[in-house]
Specification:
The complex is a heterodimer. Chain A is an alpha/beta fold. Chain A has 11 helices and 14 strands. In chain A, the strands form 3 sheets. Chain A has a 6-stranded mixed β-sheet, with helices on both faces. Chain B has 2 domains: 266 residues, no CATH class; 233 residues, no CATH class. The longest helix of chain B has 33 residues. The chains are: A alpha/beta, B mainly alpha. At the A-B interface, helix 2 and helix 3 of A face helix 15 and helix 18 of B.
Amino acid sequence: MEPVIDIRGLRHAYKTHVAVADVSFTVNPRSIHGFVGPNGAGKTTTLKVLATLLKPQAGMVAVFGRDIVRDRTEVRRKIGYMPDHFSMYRQMTVFEYLDFFGAAYGLSQGQRDKIIGDVLALTDMAGRKNDFIQGLSRGMQQRVSLARVLVHDPDLLLLDEPASGLDPRARIELMEILQELKRLGKTIFISSHILSELAELCDSVTILDRGSVKYTGSMRGLISNNGADDAYAFTLTAEHPPFVDALSAIPGVKTVQQITPGEPRYSVAFEKEQITPNALLSAALSSGAQIVSFTEDVKHLNQAFMDLTEPGVRPE
Amino acid sequence: MIARFLPLIALFSRAVRDEVRGKFPPIIRATAALFLLLLVGINQRSFEYQAAAGQGLLMMIAMVNFFGLTLVGLGSFCSAITEEKEEETLALLRMTRLNPLAILLGKSTARFVGGLLFLAVQIPFTMLCVTLGGAARDQILRVYAVLGAYLFFLCNLGLFWSVICRRTSRAVSLTFFCGILFYILPWFLAGSLLLGGLFGGPSSSELGLFERSIKFLISSNPLGDIASTIFNRSGGGGFPFATDSLPFHLIGGLVFFLLSWALFDRFCSNAGEAAPRKRKSAGGSANGLRVPRPWRLAIAWKDFHFITGGKKGMAIRLVLYAIVIGCICAWSNSNKYGSGNLDYGDIGGIIRWTALILFSAEFVSVSARIFGVERKRQTLGSLYLLPISPARIAWQKVLGCIIGFAPSFGLWILGWWMYDDWQYHHGGYGYGDYYRSAEYQERVFLQQAFTVVNYLFLGTLTAYLSLRFRRAPLVIALITLGMAHFLSAAMFGFGGKGWIAFQTFVLGLATFFLAAFIPGRIAQCAEEE
């Protein structure tokens, strides 16, 4: 399966400030890929390179197998870029705005009528199509911005902080729209600071810090406490030594660790090919332990992010 | 007691700090100094044989200062309050112990003092003119007094519009418009609209209020006053308060400052000071669309409808222009110093000159907005990402705007045709023969080419500068063009056909190179968004 985005050894500097250095990752088709990093990590620079706004100073960047420098015009037809700021013609109505971009992409009037109807329905803005953009709330303007990105039916969406400044309801609704777009076959590359929502939304993620990639791969791989192994957490009513002995003796169990000393909480890592969570639970019950909870042991994305990125402000 | 002034001092010191840290003030000062040096260099040879070389040098220095102050004034004074509105910090200032007077003083005084120092440091250097001959010490001091008063007026006029407007660009435009109203329009009315008798026999008591106002405004023009001070020692009275321009500018500046103070609360209230004016819903036609569907050249469609106002805007402008021209014709026809009944040649002349002014106003306004609006709204990036080249984007934008010029340009052509046709058929005293001659045709062609190239250069430079600077690209372009002509005249003098042809060629070449840089600049702005 050819990746939609293929970045190898990307480097870009603004005068003496190196924004991204040796960045490499890929994004699979029909997936939602999160792009996370602290402020100044180089996310927007990478997104601008992908959007063909900036030329890479070193490395190779391909979108749908096409080089973004050599085949810039072709790449532009296949991508939709939504920047992190509102860039809209606010004196236009919603329909005029979308109609203008449709015409600028060379769509016929019939094609525009159909696709504008579709994107307005998708973004739930059909009832506001004759409103002036400047009279819309921030959340609605964000929807119009997303509708504009979709108007030429791109296969890859590059979204830079699409949920920033939105209220919780607008954020949830935006995430639902993105899920729907994924179901429609789009690939979505989304940069965001709202980690909890990314954890639910994304199939894969890249974490960038100080211009270099700290992690790239599946979301599950990132939040798993034990790398590639599966892990489950037990919470008991009290410490119970036979519990540890019984689980350690099962073939396929790699470690049984007390999560916090003095507290009856344990993390059990195992090879999923050899043993199932059911077998673990049975063995724990057989040891006589009083179990309060039994859950998959994953890190919160926030914790993974904190573990991978460095504290403080990036020096110049 | 001192504690009461601490907030004002803090505001003043912040303004001074911003001025010191700014990129533009030192560049402008350095440019002005280099320009003066260049003038001295150019005139060095003439100093050797001219009896009054200092007179010419003083006039040049005064001109450079006048245009320099206009440039700095429009760029700096007009943003005094609007910059706080744009950054939404005015409400924060008002929450402190600063009252409106303190804010106005704190924001404008540093800029005014900066301009005044710019003038003051030159005075010892300008005394060189006394040594060169032709200029006296009191003349030099009076020239600087006139310039200082002009600076005071400009500072407070800019401050006034800065209080009234939400955006710096609007404040700059309105201040510029007022400048035209005070300094250029009176000359136009007196010179072009059959008011030549103003400078002839009739005494002031015979003149009506309108004519007297025009005469007063002309005599208050700082450039006229400076010229009179330098070249006519007896004219304008002694140092420094006997000239018309000094009281006009000092009193006018004070009036605008008091107006700014009086209107501050009305236009700078906390509530919604920077909020966009909201229009909820588009009214109009049955399908809810205000404008027709986009053309195949969508960017041209956008700029035609949303920068020049589209067909509706064109129709409104045409009606307004017709009313203005009608009023001027009626007024000229009834003017007691005019030639009586206007013939269609006179009407053609009025249409030609009025339409030219209206076209110029439209042209410079659109030139400043063609990319300036995109840059301000950060929409160049979304245009740049369209699958067309930046050169085509620029071309489509220009096309959309050109269509919008149809009313004023059409009237200009009509006026030109009417005037020329009348001269051709009815021109007395041998004018008809002259108008038919090859010499006239050649001269007209050169003049037209020169005019067109000047417009093209100004428009291209303004558009290019709007992609570089967020503030006052039009003013910088106008000053640049004015300085270029001034420098050219100083170096080569005013010549005949050859000089015009050379100027046309140089400006045409410069326009071509500037236009070639615009696509690259669009790409750069899109990257920076």
